[in-house]
Structures
1.
Amino acid sequence: MNLLVLLTIAAVLVVIQVGVTRWVNLNRLAWMAIWWAALWAAFSYGITPPLPQSIVVLFMAIITIALLAYLSADSEELAQARQTLVSFMVEKRYQVALIVVILTLPLLVALSVFSSLNQAPQPPASGRTIHPVPPASISFEGNTINLSTANNPYRELEHSDPEAFAAHVDNGRRVYFENCFYCHGDNMEGAGQFAHGYDPLPANFNDATTIAMLQESYLFWRIAKGAPGLPPESTPWSSAMPAWENFLTEEEIWDVILFLYEFTGFEPRAQGMPH
Amino acid sequence: MILRMLRLRTLVTGCLAIAALLFAADPAWGVPQVAEQEYRALPFISSRVLMWAVAELHLMFAAFVLAVPMFALVIEFIGYKTGDKRYDQLAYEFTKLLSVSFSFTATLGALLTFGLIVFYPTLAQYLVRIFSWTFLPYVLLFFLEAVFLYTYYYGWGKFSPRVHLFLGVMLNIVGTAIMFIANAWLTFMNTPAGVDELGNLTNLWEAINNYTWMPINIHRLIANVAFGGAIGAAYGAFKFLGAKTPEERAHYDWMGYVGIFVAICALLPLPFAGYWLGVEIYAYDQSLGITLMGGTFSWLFIIQAVLIGNLFLAANYYLWLSMGRIPGAERFRRFIKYLLAVITLCFIVWATPHSLVATVEEARAMGGSHHPILNVLGVMSAKNTAVNLLILTTYVSFLLYRRANKEATVSWAKTGNLVQFGIFAAVVIFVVFLGVYGYFVDAQTRIGLSQPQVLSVLFAMVSVTVIDIFLFRNAQSRGRVAWGKIPARSQYALFFLAITFTWLMGLMGYVRAGMRQHWHVYGVVRDTSVDAFTPTLGFAGMVVSAIVVVFFLLIAVVFFLSSLSGQKNWEPGQSKRWFKRRSETAATPLTQ
Amino acid sequence: MKHALLIFGFTILVSAFYWYVSLWVPQKRTEPPEDIAISADISTDEMIAIGEEIVGGKGTCLTCHTMGESGTGLRFPDLDNIGAIALTRVEGQSDVDYLAESMYDPNAYVVEGFVAGMPDVSRPPVALTDQEILTVIAYLQSLGATPTVTMETQLQWQGQAPTTPAVTPVATGESRDGETIYASYLCNTCHTLDGQAGVGPTFQGIGSRLSKAELYEAVIDPDASITEGYIQGLMLPTVTASRFYDEVTAAELQSLVDYLATL
C-alpha cells in the first residue's frame, strides 16, 4: 500500500465532496469523472507493488458499469446529464471547447497507437497456471505412486513417535540446505542467491497460497518431477525446477516435505477435499 | 416431386433411426454387424459445434418449458386463494408461451438424437447399450407431458379451479421426471458408475444414480426456475415496450416485475446447489475436480464472476428504477449510492482472479506470480464473503422497494427498525469476521466456515422479513404503486438480465461438458475425433454468444406466436384498407 | 416492430460484450494426449487399424520383419500371409496363441532357418501393452485369415508386463557398466558375441577392428560408416526406439565403449 498516494486521493475527494459542492453546483457528470479518475489513480499508483495492468482494466470496467448504472438509476439526474451534453454540443458559448474536444479525441487515439507501437519488445502477458492438475499417478524408481491417495509415510510419526519424526525433519533440513536453499532461500521466501536469474521466480513457501493449500502428495509430485513434469497449461514460462527424482530418494523427498511444513508452520491440506 | 421424395426419405430414415434406438436394447441388435464409421464430419462447421449448439438450445427450451409451469402453478394458486383475477390472468399469460416452446423443445431434442446417431454413432450406440431400458418410461412420460401441457393450456377456465390446479401439479411432476431421466444420461457421461473397467453395464441403477445425478437434478430444477422467470420477464418487457394503452403498460410492467422476482429468488440458492455439485465431482475423481476448478477452466469462472456480478448489479438497478413508480420512494434515494458502493466492492472481489495475467516486468515487481494484496482477494474466503454480502445488499434493495410507500403505524416502529438494523449489522460483522478468520485456519476448517456464513445471511433475511411484515401491518400508505410508470431503460435492464442468465447457462453448460476433455464418457469412452481438443475460452465464448442470439431469435418467434392469440380476427377488406393507408401516407409528400 | 429490432440489436450487443470478456482471459487450447487409447468396445476393424499402426510404429516390427518379400537372408520371417500360416505352424496350438506366444515369448518357437533373437515386445524397450498386442494379433490374423481375436480375448501371458514402464536404473544416479548396457538395451538381438552373423556385425573382435574413436562414432552415429554387407539406416531408428540415446549418460557411454574395446 502506498499510503501517501491513497491519503492524497482521499483528501482530494473529501475537499471536492464537501468544499466544492457547497459553492459550485457540481455537475453529476463531473462528479462521476472525478470518482472515476480518483479510483483509477488509486488502483494504478496507490498500491505497491503495482497491480498488473490487466487487473486495473478489469476493476475500472466494473467501476465504469457501476457509475453508469448510478447515473441512470435516477431519471432526473439522467435528464440533467443528457442536457449538459446536449448544451455543450449545441450552445455557442461552448463552441471553442467543443472544437478543442473534437480535435483532441483523434489525437488521443493517435497517441495511444503511438505509445503502443513505441514499446520495447517484451514477452506477451499471459496467465500461467500456478498449481496445475497433477496426474493420477506417477512412477518413482519403478514404483507407482497414486497421487490422490498417497500420504507422507512419516507424517504419522508426529504423534506416534516424536523422536523418529524429529529425525526425519532433521534429515529434511539437511536435504533442504544441501539442495533447495540456493533458490528457495534461507527463510523459504523464494529469494535464494540464484533466485534472481529465474522467471518464474522460485515459490515462496511462506505465502499462504503455496504449500499451505496443497497436499503433501502434490508437493511430492512437484519435487520429484520438477519443471520437466509440468503439464502444458503451466507454460509458457518454464520453471527451472530440476526433477529431483534423479538426485533424491523417496525418503529424502518425504523428509524435506516434512521440513517445509515444520519450518513455515503450515499444515498440509488433507486428502480428498475440494478446493 | 423430388422434394416430396426427399421428405419421404427423411421420414423413413427418421423412423428407422427411432426403431434402431428402441431395438438396440436387444444385444443382438446392439453389436455392430458391419464395420462402422466412428465419426462423421460436416463441411463448413465442425459437427461438435453443431451438436453443442443443438444440445444447448434444446436445454434452454427444455428449461423454459419445465420452469414456466412451476411458477405459473404457484401464481394460479395465489389467484385461486386470494380470488384476485389478475393472478389467474398472469398465470395464463405465462402458460401461453408454453405450447410453441414445447414443440421447439421436442424438435430440438429430435435433432439432438439424430445428430448423435449420425455424427457420433459409436458413442450413441454405447449410451443406448447402457440406458436402453430408460427410453420406454421417457417416451411414455413425454407423451403424458404433452397431454397434461395441452390440457392445462387449452383447459384454462374450462375446468373447476381444483381440477385445473391438479392438472398443473401433474404437469410439473411429469416434467420433472422427464428431466431426471435425461439427467441420468448426461451425468453418466461425466461421472460414469455401474459399469466395469471395460465399460460393460453391471448395474443400471448405479449408472443412473451416479455421483452427480442428484446434484444436477436439484441444480437444474432451481436454475430452470431462475431462467424461466427471466425469460418471462423478458416477455413482459417486450410487451411493455410495444404497449399502446396505460392499462397494457401497467399489466406488463407488473408481469416483468413478477418474472424477475421469481428469477432472483431462484438465483439466491443456486450457488449452494452448485457447491454441492462441485463437492460430488471432487468426491468422484479429484483430477476431474481440479480440471474444473484449476487449470484452464479456472478462467472460465472469472467470466462467470463477471456474469453473476452483472446479474446482481442489474437486478438492483431494476429495483432502484422500479422505486420510481412508488410514491414515497424518493426518501430512500440517497441510500442507493452506498448500496452501489457495496455491490461494486463485492463485484471487484468476486471477479479478482487467483492466477493473474501479468507481464514479466509486472510479475517481477510483484515478486512472483502472486500479488501480495490481490492474493488475499483471490481465495475462497474472500469470494464467499463477497457473494454473501451481494445477496444481503440485493435483499436490502428489495426491502427498501417493499416499504417505499409505507409508513409504519405500530407503536414499536422505532424499536422494530432498530432491531432490524441490529440484525443486519450483526450479520455483516459476523460474515466479514468469518471471512477474515478463514485466512488463519487450515483448509478443512475454512471450508466449514462457508456454512455459518450462509446460514447467518439466511437468518437475517428471514428474521428481518418477519419483523417487516408485522412492522407494516396496517401501515399508512403514501399512495398506490403506479404500475407502468417506469422508464423504458428498466425494461432493457430486464432484457439484460434475461440475456445474461441465458449466457450464463450456456457457459456453465459448456464447462459441465467440457471438463470431460477428451472423453465422451469420462474414463470409459474416449473421444478420438478431430474435435477431441478443448477449445480456447474465446472460441467457447463465441459459440455461446451465437447460441444465445439464435435462442433469442427463436424466442422472438415464440413471443410473436403467443401475442397472435390476443389479436382481432382478420376481416375481408382488412388488407385492402391497410394498403390504402400505406399508399396514402406514401403519396402525401408528392401531393404537397 | 421498432422495439423488436432495438431489442434484437441489444441482444447482439450484450452477447458480443460477453464474447469480448471471454476473449480477455488467457486463451489456451488443450490438446488430447497423443497415445492411442484402446477402449474395450472397439470393433474388429478398428482393432486391425490400430494394430497396423502399431506394427509400423511403436512396435518397430518392420525393422526386422518384412511384408511380402521372399528368399533367404531375411532377418526375421516374412509376415505376408501370416494369418494363414499361424493356423498350421505348430501342432495343437491355435493361431491366436501362436501369434501371442511369438510376441510374449518369441524364442519358444523359432522358425526353421532363422536365428533366435527377437525380444519380448511386452517389455521395454518396445513395451506394448496387452491391449496393443491384441490389436496386433488382430492385424496379423487379417493377413491371410479372418481375425478371431477380440479385446476380451484372454491370453496366458497377459498381466505379466509391468503396468508402468520400468524406470531404467539411471534414475538412481548409479552408473551402469558397459556389459550391463549391452544386455539391457538388447544389443545382442543384432550383434552377437560369438562370431555368428546377425542383423548387425558380430562384436567378436570388434576391439581389434575398430579404434575407440571409431567405436564412439559407430554408437552415436551408426550410419557414418557401415560394415560391408550390412544395411544402412537400420540401427539408428532401432536404438532410438530403445530410448538408448535419451537415457545413457556420458559416463555410461564411455564404459560401453571401453567394454567393446576389450572384445
2.
Amino acid sequence: MLNTLTAHELINLLSKGDILPIDICNSIINKIEKQEKSLNALAHFDKEKALERCKNLKESVNKGGLWGIPIFIKDNISVKDELTTCSSKILKGFKPPYNATVIEKLIDIGAVLMGKTNMDEFAFGSSTETSCYGPTRNPWDLERIPGGSSGGSAAAVAGDEAIFSLGSDTGGSIRQPASLSGVVGLKPTYGRVSRYGLIAFASSLDQIGPITKDVEDAAILLKAISGRDEMDSTSADIPVSDYVSNIKKGIKGLKIGIPKEYFIEGVDKEVKGSIKLAIEELEKLGAVCEDTSLPHTEYAVSVYYLVATAEASSNLARFDGVQYGMRSENITSIIDMYKKTRKEGFGDEAKRRIILGTFALSSGYYDAYYSKALKVRTLIKIDFDRAFEKFDAIVTPTSPTAAFKIGEKISDPLTMYLSDIFTISANLAGIPGISIPCGFTKNNLPIGLQILGKPFDEETILRIAWNYEQNTEWHKRKPGS
Amino acid sequence: MDYEIVIGLEVHLQLNTKSKVFCGCSTDFGSAPNTQVCPVCLGFPGSLPVLNRRALELGAKVSIALNCQIAEKIRFDRKNYFYPDLPKGYQISQFDQPLAQHGKLSIIVGNSRGRSLQKIVDKTEKKIRIRRVHLEEDTGKLFHQKDSSLIDFNRCGIPLLEIVSEPDMNSPEEAYLYLTALKSILEYLDVSDCNMEEASLRCDANISLRKKADKKLGTKTEIKNMNSFKGVKAALEYETKRQMGLLEDGKRIIQETRLYNTEKGVTEPMRSKEEAHDYRYFPEPDLAPFNFEKSFLKSIEKNMPELPEHKKNRFIKDYQLSGYDAGIIVSDKNTADYFEKCASLYSNPKTIANWLIGDVFAYMKANNVSIKDLNLKESYLSGMLRMIDSGVITGKVAKTLLIEIIQTGKDPGKLIKEKGLEQISDVKLLEAATDQVIAENPKSAEDFKNGKDNAIMFLVGKVMQKTKGRADPNKVNEILRNKLKGDA
C-alpha cells in the first residue's frame, strides 16, 4: 500500500533501498484502476506514459530531492507535449510546447509526472463541478463535492490516488478543497512560486502550491517549487528557507490572532466547534491566541469578484480559435469565428465571469467597480499588515461549511461564491495560507483549519501546522475507514 | 472664409533592440514567417512577459531628446481588443502613466510675405509640443488571401515607441517638417531604422479645420496608411481641401478614420464597423510597476549623443557656417559626421560646406545614393580642395574631377596625373592661348579696348574652354588685360 504513504516516508524507503520508484508507481496505478471511475479526480492519465517516465528516471538525478516520487499536476499547469486543458472544452487537445517553471523544477529533482487532475473550468469554481470532464467526487462521501477549483488534486491525494499534487489558488482553490477533502493545502505568498506556465485565471492573485497528506510533505514540495524565476517578473528574489528542518521547532510564545470576522453567522456550528478546539490545542502547545479584527473582511468577496473577473476577462481573450485549442466549424467570418468558438468552448461559469469582468472594466464603469475594488483591496491588505504587527499568524476556519452535495450550489452562483469567503482575503493581500485537517463533522466530513502568515513567512505557518499535526490524529484518518 | 488647419501626429517607432520587448526572440526584419517566435510573443497560455531593459533605455533616450518629463514609476497597461494579429487578445501598452510627457520639438518654418516675385521668406523657429511618449508591443501581420488569411507573428512583440504630438501644426508642410525633424533626432539617437516602407516608422495624422477666430477645435478625422513623409503631406493636403470643401458647402465633418489611397492620392473612409472601441485598459498584472532608478536614468543621460540642434549651433560657432548651411548639413547625421571629418583634414570649412551642399549633394541626388554609400573618402574631397587652393587644379577642373573620384574611387592626385588635369600656369603657354583667342574674337577684344570691361570675362571663358578648364583664370585675366592694354 505504498500509495497511502507520504512523500517523506517514501523518500526514506527509497533511500534505504527497500523499494523502487516503479513500486510506488504501480501501487498508484492499482488504486487508480480500482477507484478513479467513481472519483473522477483525474483529467488526463495515461498509465503507459506514467510507467515509461518512471522507468526512464535517470539514476544521476540527486536522490536527495524527489527522486522517484510520483506527482499529479492540476490541469492548468503547462506540461510540455501533454494535454493541458484547464478542464475546458475550448482547450480541447491542447498540448503546450513548453514546461511550466514548477514542472522543470520537479523534473530536475527526479519527481515522476503521473498526469493531470480535474478542476473547475479555468479554476472558476469551488466545487470542481464546472469541469468539462464532469464533477470530481469527494472520497469521504461520493455524493459530495471535494471543493474546488483544485478538487481533482485534493481528491486524488485524499483518495490515495496520488502521493501529493500541485494545485493553484486564486481565491482559495488549494485551501478550500484541501479542507473539504481532509488534506493539507498551502497557498504560498504571491511571488513565492513562479507562475510561468500556469494558465492564468487572475494574474495578480494566482499562486501554485502543494496539496499533500501531511505538513512535512507540504514543506518539502513548497521548497521544491519556490524561488525567483527570470521568466516571471512578479516572482520575488527572496531566499527560500529550509522549511523541513525549521518547522520542527516548537511554537511556544508565538502570537496568534483570531479575527472575529471569521466567526460570523453562517459558519457551521460543527466547524466553529472544531476550530475552537484547535485553538485550544495551539494554546496548549504554548502559542498565545488572542482575538483580533480584520475590519474590511466583509468586502473581500465583492472585491475579489471584480478584480479576479476583470483580469480573467482579459486573460481568457486569447482563447479565440486562432492559434490553438478548439475552433468552431462552419464559420463565415472572423467575428463569427470568435463568437461561435467562445460560445461553444466556454462553459456557463466561464462566460459569467468573462461578462462580469468585461463589464467591470468598461468605460463608464471602471471607476465605480474595478478602480474602487483596487482601493478596497489595499484596505484589506492594510488590515493584515496591522494585524501582523502584533501577531505571528492568524487562525480561522478554511471554509464556513464542510463538503456540500453535488448540485447543491451549482445553480446559485452567489451561494457558491460565499464558500470562499474565508480564503479570498489572503489572495487579495498576497499573504500565505495553509489549510490542515482539524476535525470531522458527525457525518464524517473533514473540517479544515486555516493558518495565515506574513508575506514570505511560509515557515511560521508551516511550523504552527506541523506542531498542531504532531499532536493530533486528524491527518491520519482515511476515507472509508 | 479663412480657416486654420490643426494637425496632430502620432508616430509609431520600432525600436532597434536585438530582442523583442517582452521575450528573447530576435527582431530581425525579413525572416521567414513565424520563425522568430516563442510561447511569450505568441501569447501561449501560461506564458509571461519580462521587460527588455534595452527597450526602456531607448525609449528614455528619445524622451530626453524630446525634452520630456520622464515618469518616476514605470507601469504597463493592457489594451484589450480582439484581432487575429494580436495573440493575447490584448496589447501590452501604457495608458494613463506613459513613459514620458510634456516634451517639445522645434521646427524651422518659413513665413512668406510680399508678392510672388519679391517674396521674402522669414525662417522662424516653431515649437511643437509633445503630449506623450509610451512603450508598447507591436502586433503580428496579416496576409489576406482569397478565402483565408495568414498571420506572421515575427513582428509581434517588437518594441514600439508611440510619440504623440499636441495639435500644434497648422499646415501639411509643418507636419512634414515635424516628421523630418523627428526622424533626424531619432537617427542621431540610433534608436530605430526609421524606415516607413518597412514599417519601422508609422504615422497617423489627426486633422481638423476651424475658422480663424474660433477657439474651439473643429471635428477631426484620423488619417492612416501613409507610407512616406511626402505621403503624409499629400494626404493632409488632400484632407484639408476635402474638409474645406465640406465646410464651405455648409456641411458637417464626420469624425472618422480615413485611409490614404496612395495611388489615387485621396483619403477614403475606413470600411470598419469597429469605430468606438472600448479598450478596457487596466494595469498589466504580469509586470509589476517599478521605479525608474535614478542611476539608470543618469547613465542614459550621460551617454546621450549630440543632437541636431546642438550640433547646428556648434557648426555655426566653430566652423563659421551660415545657419542655412549648418541646418542642411546637420539634418542628416552621416552628412554631419562626414563634414566634421573633412573639416579635420582641411582648413576652410565654409568651402567644404559649399562643395558638400553643391556638387556632392547634386551627385547624390542624381544617382540616388546616400552619403554613407557614396564612394568619396573624406581625405579625397579635402585633398582635392587643397589642390585647388595650391593652384594644382582649377575649380572648374575640380568639378569634373570630383565625379571621376566618386566613379573610380581613385586618389585625386593620381587622377590628376593620369588625366593631365594640372592647372596651366606656364606664362608662355597661356600667352599663346590668349593670342589665339584675341585673334579669333576681334570684336570682343575691340569692345574691351573701348571700355567695355565685361568683355574680358567672355575672353577669359574662351581661354578656359581652349585649355579644357586647366588654365589659371586669374593669370589669364592678367595676361589678357596686359595684352589688350598694350595694344591700345
